[in-house]
Amino acid sequence: MSQSKNVAFIGLGNMGEPMVANLAKAGFNLKLHDVDSNRAAQLAEKYGATACLTWTDLAAGSELVITMLPTGAIVRDVLLEAEGGLLAHLTPGTLVVDMSSSEPLGSRELGETLAKRGVELIDAPVSGGVPGALAGTLSIMAGARQPSIIDRAMPVFEALGKRVFRTGGLGSGHAMKALNNYVAAAAYTATAEAVLIGERFGLDAAMMVEIINCSTGRSFNSEVVFAGQVVPGTFQTGFALGLLAKDVGIATGLGEALDVNAPVSRAVRERWEHARTILGATTDQSRALTAWGKK
């Protein structure tokens, strides 16, 4: 980034705000934009940043733009379509870093479009959730057309995360994020079904989870989500069910697009789509088994 300190940040949700806080702490000059302009103004005042209502103001002087938005479709809309699109106002040489969970094939297409205007794209989704964003210990999976492009973003990544994985070409970061979340969702699904079957048989759920966690069935979900959230009934992981269902859909759709026979991914996608329909997209993802346990 040639030691640039001028960063624009779009998307100030549960993940966006703590990321902005860490960038401000690291000394970056920040411009903020959100669909909720009042929130952007409040956070700008809180972190010594500048809130921008227009793409012209956001782009002026910004050498790196971070998007942290719900879907790849929204990222594309922001850059290319909404009110003429931010891209029309970016100067050649600007770097766009999409840290959302977007579709990998869509990221490749978007990157090609941006490159025609002299703007490079890095797809750099994160793992670690809100706790990792707060602590600045996120794991970042970064893909780009060339490794040197990622080098430019390293000062920003170092302010936000603990580990940066260079996953390969453009779209590879988003592919890795979706595939990781698919594996996590599959582990949750299997654990939930085991608990539901066991309870129907007469086993105690807490005892089951304790045994799984010192046996071969253990996983992040059994150790953290089930032991810490599901069994005590707190259901507060901070990650929305709809977002996990979306990521499973991205991973499954990628397999289908690449003609990979992956029947488990399709079954997991169906289960999480069912949970989203029953419980709603904004429900905490740890509640999914309450949808599957209904008769």
UniProtKB/TrEMBL annotation:
Cited SUPFAM superfamilies: 6-phosphogluconate dehydrogenase C-terminal domain-like, NAD(P)-binding Rossmann-fold domains
Active-site residues per Swiss-Prot or TrEMBL entry: K177
UniProt domain 3-hydroxyisobutyrate dehydrogenase-like NAD-binding: residue ranges: 171-290
Pfam families for this protein: NAD_binding_11, NAD_binding_2
Cross-referenced InterPro entries: 3-OH-isobutyrate_DH-rel_CS, 6-PGluconate_DH-like_C_sf, 6PGD_dom2, 6PGDH_NADP-bd, HIBADH-like_NADP-bd, HIBADH-related, NAD(P)-bd_dom_sf
Gene3D superfamilies on file: N-(1-d-carboxylethyl)-l-norvaline Dehydrogenase, domain 2 (1.10.1040.10), NAD(P)-binding Rossmann-like Domain (3.40.50.720)
Protein name as annotated: Oxidoreductase
